[in-house]
Design a protein that fits this description.
A hairpin with a 5-residue loop joins strand 21 and strand 22. The radius of gyration is 27 Å and the shape is globular. Strands 1, 2, 6, 7, 8, 9, 15 and 16 form an eight-stranded mixed β-sheet that branches. Strands 4-5-3-11-12-13-10-14 form an eight-stranded mixed β-sheet. A six-stranded mixed β-sheet has the order 26-27-28-25-19-29, sandwiched between helices. The chain starts with a strand and ends in a 14-residue tail after the last strand. With 819 residues, it is an alpha+beta fold. The protein is built from 18 helices and 35 strands. The protein binds flavin-adenine dinucleotide (FAD). Flavin-adenine dinucleotide binds next to helix 1, strand 10, strand 14 and helix 9. The site of flavin-adenine dinucleotide has 41 residues, from helix 1, strand 10, strand 14 and helix 9.
């Protein structure tokens, strides 16, 4: 075995081998893969081999699409057959919500170019003659289905071998029976790995260890939020009906998914494989995989599977006559949101994760492709935030991960409503005033472990969501909250914001080199600044306030805490001239916004709040009520006269109570995240993570005024200059959708020209309650961005006319903000 390599991949499942293959493909052939047993010995050998293209995530959808395309080419490239049966994949729907879900998915599929068809019950029968269409009694009636003609199933071990061949033929090395047992970071910044076959030093390490992710992480000092869950499928004997159908010339049946009964069914040697996602499947190995487990399986638990078996027998009656040959019950890696962890680990350099794969056979190709791109080019080629390991933070305790993973597993087939908020492992992280908000009717959601009020149920209204793809029970109440902020004054608790303090003699120039805008130079000034990727895409959005000489307060999205902190840490100069402190947990934040916000604050603040003394986009460190050291910033994300109060956390109750008391005479009320969404859309405020991503530059996002090309070097500047020369490929638009009755855009819908050609995609959408318009934000080709231009959008399968509006259709002159 080599003693030195540019990169070591730990783990020889399909994901590790795909990573090795793609690294070698990109020219990093000085790469060694270490596998403790033999290739595929983890979960890969017993996977059912399904390759579903269906995925609600824009990112994961792209990874799956790449995989399916790659697996079709691999045999020709490597000479290794992979048994890819392109059977197609049929997902049944037995209710309108399910059809809505499929239609919502179709928007995403359209924007990433995945072929699909939405079909009716008769076509279901044509494609799948052995199916019962249902009569509503024991077997719900099929109302339609989503059909992917291009996917199917594959032999996972053969696929791994093909990838192995491809990697080896390009010079990469694979060592089996070679377990990594210890890790050290060398003074030169490399990784020193100890194995039973000797030591090896590597510049980069990729962990692709499947069910072992947590214990591998521990070797590197990481708490990796991946714990496996039991997953089973049943292998059936031959089915006489299936055999007769196939011998009569019938083609292999598409993989069938009855989502509403949470199972899949596919052919296997004239019999069937039935795989349910059942309730009660336990998480396993939370403290690590025991040495004895090796290539074993768990005992099958038929009891747990029975409800799904019975449902499948009602849908495919011939199944009842088939004997059960085997039950395969193996560990399947999960993460709390069900998406894998692909990208850099936090807190160190050149350590990469490709872990937490629950659809790893499907995702392996795409996961290897983008991780190799990231490692070799320094950045991935697509927006990877949805799978970035740093989307999780230190809150992922063992119990949190266990509870969330079990919940995610049993919810694989539930309808993925856009407003869904799952209940397990909650509440975990709460703002100090959580109980008060709760008593005032808050209906909470969870983001990055934090409880956030989505809306407030007025007295007498049940504090509960009815999740839907359409306007739902909270629509009116969200509207009232939004209107209160437009007409009176409201409070939003934004304590989860990520907050950093940057101090030291080098602070200003360091920050300036990280972002495209000019960092404020005058004490009390605030600037909206974007950190870019080297390709010029938007990595992060920071609101930077100069608090004092050599002292900056940097605020970013709550969900970006680890992502931003890790990035800032990595970029710090090594000369000690800058100190970075993550102060997220020591400061809370309330937004007080609306035309009467000045009147409310004036009762608690001695300093004058008028425009001359306290202009828009400035901040002051002041006392508010009894609270000291409050950063009072005249900015907000709702586009109203207002202030954000960033206060030492111990004053949360005092400030909350004082603001409510001071605001009583001005009709002050509370508002939640959904009202904020409505308000920010009316102002065309771009949201980091959905509207602002590495896929788009600030020019594409229409943020030209926050880019200072003449200020000196900053990361991404060259890419922006090139883009200006070559032409900006997309333009950000705000649009109104006409003829909406109950389904507003929500993001990820395709946008079309009048001839039906796709011209872009929506990144967000909601109802603007003050404007009384259904609004969307998105990117289109520049020729379609003109004000007043007519475009079309597809919402839940219906084509709607839309008109491009002025940026910030509510108060375009910002008069409210400057009032
Ligand atoms: C019953 C079942 C059915 C499934 N069906 C499907 C399906 O139809 N479609 C689909 O897409 N997915 C399916 N999956 C999921 C799929 O099996 C996994 O997502 C995939 O195999 C994960 O691959 P991996 O390479 O990440 O992990 P693994 O295959 O588990 O590989 C990890 C490897 O790392 C090695 N390793 C660990 N620690 C070390 C160390 N310290 N040193 C060296 N080596 C180490 C292990 O020995 C192991 O070989 C199924 C899973 C189960 C349980």
């Amino acid at each position: 075995m080599k003693t030195h390599a540019r990169v070591v991949v730990i783990g020889g499942g399909v994901v590790g081998v795909s990573t090795l293959y793609h690294l070698a493909l990109k020219g990093w052939s000085d790469a060694v893969l270490l596998e403790r047993a033999e290739l595929t010995a983890g979960s890969t050998w017993h996977a059912a081999g399904l390759l579903p293209l269906f995925n609600m995530s824009y990112t994961v959808g792209q990874l799956h699409k790449y995989s399916v395309d790659l697996y079709k080419r691999l045999p020709a490239e490597t000479g290794q057959d992979v048994s890819f049966h392109v059977t197609g994949n049929l997902r049944l729907a037995t209710c309108r919500d399910r059809m809505d879900e499929y239609q919502k998915y179709c928007g995403t599929a359209n924007t990433i170019g995945v072929p699909f068809q939405v079909i009716g019950p008769e076509q279901v029968r044509d494609l799948w003659p052995l199916v019962e269409l249902g009569d509503g009694a024991g077997t719900p009636k099929i109302v339609g289905a989503l059909y992917h003609p291009d996917d199917g199933h594959i032999a996972p071990a053969d696929l791994t071998m093909a990838l192995r061949k491809g990697a080896r033929s390009r010079g990469a090395e694979i060592q089996e029976q070679c377990e990594v047992t210890a890790v050290k970071h060398t003074p030169s910044g490399e990784w020193h790995l100890t194995t039973n076959k000797g030591d090896i030093v590597a510049e980069h390490v990729v962990c692709a260890t499947g069910n072992y992710a947590r214990q591998t992480g521990r070797m590197f000092g990481l708490n990796v939020p991946s714990i496996p869950v039991e997953h089973q499928y049943i292998v059936y004997d031959e089915s006489p009906e299936l055999k007769a159908y196939r011998q009569g010339g019938g083609r292999e049946l598409a993989v069938l998914r009855e989502s509403d009964q949470s199972y899949y069914l596919r052919e296997e040697r004239m019999g069937w494989i039935l795989g349910p996602y059942e309730a009660g499947a336990p998480a396993r190995f939370a403290d690590g995989v025991p040495a004895w487990f090796g290539k074993s399986l768990f005992e099958g638990d038929l009891e747990r599977l029975l409800p799904h078996v019975e449902a499948a027998q009602r849908r495919v009656p011939s199944l009842a006559a088939c004997g059960i040959k085997d039950i395969v019950n193996g560990p399947i890696a999960y993460t709390p949101d069900g998406s894998p962890l692909i990208g850099p680990a936090w807190g160190g350099r050149n350590l990469w994760l490709n872990e937490g794969h629950s659809f790893g056979i499907t995702a392996a190709g795409g996961a290897g492709w983008q991780l190799a791109e990231w490692m070799v080019e320094g950045e991935p080629g697509i927006d990877m935030m949805a799978v970035d390991p740093r989307r999780y933070g230190p809150y992922t305790s063992k119990r949190y991960v266990v509870q969330k993973n079990e919940e995610t597993y049993r919810n694989v087939f539930v309808i993925h409503f856009p407003d869904e908020e799952r209940p397990d492992a909650r509440p975990a992280k709460t703002s100090p005033v959580y109980d008060k908000l709760s008593r005032m009717g808050a209906v909470f959601g969870q983001r990055y472990g934090w409880e956030r009020a989505n809306w407030f149920a007025p007295p007498g209204v049940p504090a509960k969501d009815h999740w839907s793809f359409r306007r739902s029970n909270y629509f009116e109440h969200v509207g009232n909250e939004a209107l209160r902020l437009r007409k009176h004054v409201g409070i939003i608790d934004l304590t989860p914001f990520t907050k950093h303090e940057v101090t030291g003699p080098g602070a200003e120039s360091w920050l300036d080199g990280l972002v495209a805008n000019k960092v404020p130079t005058k004490i009390g000034r605030i600037a909206l600044c974007h950190a870019l990727t080297r390709r010029g895409g938007i990595r992060s959005e920071f609101t930077i306030t100069k608090i004092a000489d050599q002292h900056f307060y940097v605020v970013s999205a709550g969900a970006a805490e680890r992502y931003d902190n890790d990035y800032l840490q990595q970029q710090l100069p090594r000369d000690g001239s800058v100190t970075l402190r993550n102060i997220t947990m020591s400061r809370g934040c309330f937004v007080v916004a609306g035309p009467r916000s000045r009147d409310v604050l004036a009762k608690l603040v001695d300093a004058p709040l008028d425009n001359a003394a306290f202009p828009w986009l400035t901040g002051q460190v002041t006392e508010v009520g009894l609270a000291t050291d409050v950063y009072l910033l005249r900015v907000n994300f709702v586009g109203a006269l207002g202030w954000e109060l960033h206060f030492p956390i111990e004053y949360a109750h005092h400030l909350f109570d004082s603001l409510l008391a001071a605001g009583a005479e001005f009709n002050l009320g509370l508002a939640g995240m959904r009202a904020m969404e409505s308000l920010r859309l009316e102002k065309s405020y771009r949201m980091w993570g959905s509207d602002l991503t590495p896929d788009y530059s600030p020019y594409e996002a229409g943020l030209d005024r926050f880019v200072r090309l003449n200020k000196g070097p900053f990361i991404g500047k060259e890419a922006l200059e090139k883009q200006l020369e070559a032409g900006v490929p997309h333009r950000f638009i705000t649009f109104e959708v006409h003829g909406v009755t109950d389904a507003d855009p929500l993001g990820n819908e395709p946008l079309f020209d009048a001839k039906g050609n796709i011209i872009g995609r929506a990144t967000a959408g909601y109802y603007g309650h003050a404007l009384r318009r259904s609004l969307g934000l998105g990117y289109v080709k520049p020729e379609f961005a003109a004000l007043g231009g007519d475009i079309e959008i597809e919402i839940l399968g219906e084509r709607k006319r839309a008109t491009v509006l002025v940026d910030s259709p509510y108060d375009p002159e910002n008069q409210d903000l400057r009032a």
